[in-house]
Amino acid sequence: MRIAVPSETDAAEARVAATPETVKKFIGFGADVVVQAGAGAKSGIADQEYAAAGATVGPDTATTLRDADLILRVRRPDPADLAGVKEGAAILAIADPYDHIDALQALAATKARIFAMELMPRITRAQVMDVLSSQANLAGYRAVIDAAEDYGRVIPMMMTAAGTVPAAKIFIMGVGVAGLQAIATARRLGGIVTATDVRPATKEQVLSLGAKFIAVEDEEFKQAETAGGYAKQMSAAYQAKQAELTASHIAKQDIVITTALIPGRPAPILITADMVKSMRAGSVIVDLAVERGGNCALSKPGNSIVTENGVRIIGHLNVAARQPATASALYARNLLAFAETLIDKETKTLAINDEDELVKATLLTKDGALVHPNFQPAAA
Ligand code: NAD
Questions:
Q1: Which of 118, 122, 357, 358 to mutate to test the pocket of ligand 1 (most atoms within 8 A of CB)?
Q2: Alanine dehydrogenase/pyridine nucleotide transhydrogenase N-terminal domain: which residues (predicted)?
Q3: Mean pLDDT value of segment 343-355
Q4: Domain range for 360
Q5: How far apart are CA 95 and CA 130, in angstroms?
Q6: Residue 331 lies in a domain
Q7: Ligand 1 in contact with 268 (CB < 6 A)?
Q8: Are residues 99 and 184 in the same domain?
Q9: pTM greater than 0.90
Q10: What is the ipTM metric for this complex?
């Protein structure tokens, strides 16, 4: 069994899908591992470290992928990247399937089996494979660090001989994995932290982290969680009440971090242009939902802007990868854990069980077709 780790083709992607630690484990399962030269460079991993772990270093993508049974990637490959890949080869990646049916169909034609790691069910067995959690946690941390960097004042209260400096007020909107880590990080820095979410279960989590919970707690709120633990799309009436409540709060905040997402839908707008106007100069908004349209009406994907009234709005993309070494280390462990379920350790071969619920939930393409029920071309 041959496992390949090609370099990411998107120059902006700093993560890598395997580390020397995971390479060693794969070799322990009886696999040959090939890592493309330079694949780990942006995560601070030199080719020699992969070689020391037992991998072969492939000079280019084609050589790296040749005869591979299992390909580990961070992002969805282009079909052109897969020229010459063995039929049926399994590719694990953050495949970003929503709204990309055409790209998925083109990939299906390569006859590879592409698994979307972000579709991993959130069940106990798969927690260790949960790339959304491993990366969102880092994004939540980084959002606070980025905000602190651009905030022209300090976060904690300081009592000095030259006088007292007040603590920064930090509001976290959306308390999933990223939001919880943002609360914890903001508290560690000494901020006065408040948070909101539409899922009632988050209230206790917010309080347990020492922050204050702010939300419209009506009947709709009490039902606002799917069986999978995700947020439901809220009604227009709820969103209006929510906006009314948060508007006066936002006006008093120094830093607002937004993380609100609804799977498969555009992110809800939680901060309107008027709310931004109500904030004082020097305040900072970090919009972690910017890749799905943003929670702030004014945020710009990939950019940091300053509004006329002096509010900075940060819209970095791929925030987890702003600390690439940690992001790669955790992502690589997520892939290792899933890959282990696809390998028969007796015969040392890839043995994919299509009936396994993890495979059913994540497999996008097989035998030249798009097989995932949620990602089918619209009927003509
Ligand atoms: P997410 O990234 O999909 O969304 C982030 C947060 O935004 C969510 O908490 C959501 O409720 C919130 N949100 C959506 N619309 C909002 C609105 N209008 N206003 C305010 N907030 C809004 O969420 P996530 O980080 O993936 O976590 C979702 C849930 O899954 C959490 O309960 C998390 O603890 C749970 N989870 C479970 C497992 C597991 O069991 N293996 C693993 C990870 C996460």
A1: 122
A2: 4-139
A3: 95
A4: 2-119+342-372
A5: 14
A6: no
A7: yes
A8: no
A9: yes
A10: 0.95
